[in-house]
């Protein structure tokens, strides 16, 4: 393990080469600690004569508290340069910061890492001079968190290792730092080294997997948590429900719902919102309705969840009714609310209604349309067969269209056999993401659908020349709360022989019932 970078006595640098420099200036601590922090200031000196100091003296409030409170306000607003300036003025007045002052500044650096990358190391140097970085648990945890969130996870580990005493907070902070920086193996190894693992430690690890999109791993560690007899709390439940929603694991989600009911956790708004999202994504919209209707307090997120769920499941009228009812109950719609309303309109071809909501969003509610909203309008026109209007939206939207927005129109071109427009769209897609295999595959399929095999072959050859390989799609199924995934021709499953035997039996039954595969049917019709 490498040693910590050298810290200068003036507190102006933590690493000579690896960390960015920034014109922050922090007054170093005095050799002799100042005792009388509220003594009158010499007005003839060059030190600043600040009103905050005068107010502190008059009201007998500890000046450290007053200054730290002011610094905290700047940190919360992301004004770290003002916080640093205030801290320097505080030192010029010979007011010594305490551990809360440093925790406040370090937390600001962690919350706004683009600024914190420069200021954080300076603060670390200052705490090192006072031995707070190794002897104070809260300052040590704040340093670990700051470096991890600024992307310097190795420095975070060095700070963690140098702590003379560690508590669960410091362990959990370091595990979270590893997870957020993609150091999965290191996070698990550190988790295994923990002397005691509480529910928060388990939740930190599971949450890290969910944040990285490793939903199956998250559920696997949730099962390990249950085996360890650690009892999930509200945060654990919300995290696990998020993993279930992304995997479509309805069975496990139902189990978690029953657990929340048993433990009396259904008064928690975040759990209810997560359940609405889960059931909506799994197509169990009636269960989502039940959760929503039983909620005592509904937040804007609650309304957005049910509106989006109803919209994505084809209940357009009900989704728009909830959109209106939400406003009648005093909640102002945000950009997510309008995404739900626009989705509802696009799924049932309500073009005029969708355009009205888009106009109201911008003109009445002063919400600037985001790419998601333009994507909804493109999808609205595409589903209604107004492909040129959809193309016009793409060409005139104020931001660069992504492959999802243009891809929805390309899919509509395939449905309607509009090869010319698909070729124009391909120019956009290649410019946006030349390596996206789905763009070439979609255009190839469009050519094939209208019998232009030369065009289809050309697209496949282009993919080969560019070294683009089609990513295999996969299907998943949940059996007994376990998720099983398959790709085309997959024989890796331990019950592959039984699965293929069943497929053969189903194919035979379909043939007996008169089913003819699509490709064979086209050949028969063509020959006829």
UniProtKB/TrEMBL annotation:
Residues 1-48 are annotated as: Disordered. Keywords: Repeat. Residues 7-20 have a biased composition (Polar residues). Residues 33-47 have a biased composition (Basic and acidic residues). PPR repeats lie at residues 63-97, 167-201, 202-232, 268-298, 299-333. Pfam families: E_motif, PPR, PPR_2. PANTHER family: PENTATRICOPEPTIDE REPEAT-CONTAINING PROTEIN (PTHR47926:SF510). NCBIfam families: PPR (TIGR00756). This is Chloroplast biogenesis 19.
């Amino acid at each position: 393990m490498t040693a910590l970078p050298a810290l200068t006595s003036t507190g102006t640098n933590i690493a000579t080469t690896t960390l960015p420099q920034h014109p922050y200036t922090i007054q170093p601590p005095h050799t002799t600690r100042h005792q009388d922090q509220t003594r009158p200031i010499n007005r003839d000196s060059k030190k600043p004569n600040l009103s905050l100091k005068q107010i502190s003296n008059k009201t007998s409030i500890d000046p450290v508290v007053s200054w730290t409170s002011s610094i905290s306000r700047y940190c919360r607003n992301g004004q770290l340069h003002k916080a640093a300036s205030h801290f320097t003025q505080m030192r010029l007045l010979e007011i010594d910061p305490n551990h809360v002052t440093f925790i406040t500044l370090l937390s600001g650096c962690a919350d706004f890492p683009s600024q914190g990358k420069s200021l954080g190391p300076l603060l670390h140097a200052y705490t090192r001079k006072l031995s707070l970085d190794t002897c104070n648990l809260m300052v040590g945890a704040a340093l670990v968190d700051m470096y991890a969130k600024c992307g310097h996870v190795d420095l975070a580990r060095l700070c963690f290792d140098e702590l003379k005493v560690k508590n669960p907070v410091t362990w959990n902070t370091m595990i979270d730092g590893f997870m957020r920086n993609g150091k999965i193996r290191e996070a698990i190894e550190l988790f295994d080294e923990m002397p005691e693992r509480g529910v928060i430690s388990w939740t930190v690890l599971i949450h890290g997997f969910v944040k990285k999109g490793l939903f199956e791993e998250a559920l696997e560690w949730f099962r390990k948590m249950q085996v360890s007899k650690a009892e999930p709390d509200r945060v654990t439940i919300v995290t696990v429900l998020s993993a279930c929603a992304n995997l479509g694991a309805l069975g496990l989600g139902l189990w978690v719902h029953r657990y929340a009911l048993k433990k009396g956790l259904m008064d928690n708004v975040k759990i209810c919102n997560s359940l609405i999202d889960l059931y909506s994504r799994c197509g169990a919209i009636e269960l989502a309705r039940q959760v929503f209707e039983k909620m005592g307090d509904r937040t804007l997120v609650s309304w957005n969840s049910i509106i989006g769920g109803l919209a994505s499941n084809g209940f357009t009228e009900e989704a728009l009714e909830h959109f209106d009812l939400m406003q009648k109950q005093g909640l102002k719609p945000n950009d997510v609310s309008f995404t739900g309303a626009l989705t509802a309109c696009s799924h049932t071809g309500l073009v005029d209604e969708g355009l009205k909501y888009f106009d109201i969003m911008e003109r009445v509610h002063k919400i600037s349309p985001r790419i998601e909203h333009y994507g909804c309008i493109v999808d609205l026109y595409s589903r209604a067969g107004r492909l040129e209007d959809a193309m016009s939206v793409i060409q005139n939207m104020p931001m660069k269209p992504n492959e999802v927005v243009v891809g929805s129109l390309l899919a509509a071109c395939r449905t309607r056999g509009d090869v010319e427009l698909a070729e124009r769209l391909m120019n956009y897609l290649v410019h946006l993401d030349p390596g996206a295999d789905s763009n070439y595959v979609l255009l190839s399929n469009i050519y094939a659908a209208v019998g232009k095999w030369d065009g289809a072959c050309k697209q496949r050859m282009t993919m080969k020349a560019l070294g683009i390989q089609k990513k295999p799609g996969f299907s998943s199924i949940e059996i007994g709360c376990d998720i099983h995934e398959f790709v085309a021709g997959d024989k890796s499953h331990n019950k592959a022989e039984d699965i293929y035997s069943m497929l053969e039996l189903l194919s035979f039954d379909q043939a007996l019932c008169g089913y003819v595969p699509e490709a064979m049917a086209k050949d028969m019709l063509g020959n006829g």
